[in-house]
Amino acid sequence: MGDAFIRHIELLGYEKRFFPSQHYVYMFLVKWNDLSEKVVYRRFTEIYEFHKALKEMFPIESGDINIENRIIPHLPAPKWFDGQRSTENRQGTLAEYCYALVNLPHKISRCLHVVSFFKVRHDDMNPVTDSQIKKPEVFLLPKDSKKTPTDITGPIVLQTYRAIADYEKSSTSEMALKAGDMVDVVEKSENGWWFCQLKNKRGWVPAAYLEPMDGPDESEEQEPNYAGEAYVVQKSYTAVEEDELTLKEGDTIEVIHKLLDGWWVIRKDETTGYYPSMYLQKAGEVNTSVKSELRNRGAPPRRSTIRNAKSIHKQGRRKISQETYRRNSKKYFQNQRNMRGNPQNKANVIIEKNEPEDNKPKAQPAVPPRPSKDLILNRCTESTRRKIL
Questions:
Q1: Which of 80, 88, 128, 377 has the fewest CB atoms within 10 Å distance of its CB?
Q2: Cα distances (Å, whole numbers) of residue 120 to 37, 125, 199, 332
Q3: Domain PX: where (predicted)?
Q4: Has residue 353 got a pLDDT over 50?
Q5: Percent helix, strand and coil across the chain, each to the nearest 5
Q6: CA atoms within 13 A on the CB side of 316
Q7: Predicted model pTM
């Protein structure tokens, strides 16, 4: 195999670190010619020193001899003091710089200077931190941001979650966890698989294995919607637990509660139960990528199936029984039937409630008397006097 070179460099965002003192480092995802992908961390002062050395190595391409021959991109010098605002605002420029750098002629983009700078270092694998001071804060670029400074709407602050039990990954796209691991959640997918990062590792993790640090995450779960949303089953599933439903591909159901772990409460006729959300598709929507996704990954585990789960919170996540779901569904349908059978009931209640208020005479604001012409001439300004003359 030939010499290593970089295929692509993507700016992921930046970290605010507090050890040995407060500073900022940019995070880059570097994709190599052997199809490996590595995350590296660099300060802007390092990047600028790299840039200056690159210009000295290629004086013609840097425009030092003739400015018209310049192809190496520009990079502004560091400020005397780089705070969070300047670090954030510089992201668009850095994203453009990396894109242009990789697309330069091979003698520049694949030279030893470039390859060495973006190689993984020991500090990239084991960042120097001190948990007694403060954990680094991570700010990611939005997914849909473009490579121009004006298009970047701002960073996303990652949420930190804790693993409640050990998790062994079953595919290369997943990430193994140990109980107590602190991970940053990059993306929360409604199918119950969350994309997380732990130091230099990144991968998909079942949401059921994670809990927020400040309390049970029931506040993130929506309230049940007993009116229901129509969905179509995209993949059959046979119930394993008593509170799950067995359905076939093509069945039409109603989703009444969307939960974070990817197991939604659905209603089929008058029966309710849990079903994997990744096997459902909203009625009327067309998504050709759904079936391929189903073949690549199975349903995430449920919280109730995790053994030796150890939470740091005294209060657990709020759980509604299937009997409560069924009872409230029946109550909802009964109210709907009553409304259709007696359409005047609601109007009568409103009228009876409003009648006493309507009978009361409403106080009218007092209209002040208009001042006399003599009073206006004596007390008002010259412009006001001219209007009445």
A1: 80
A2: 10, 7, 13, 59
A3: 4-125
A4: no
A5: 30, 25, 45
A6: 9
A7: 0.51
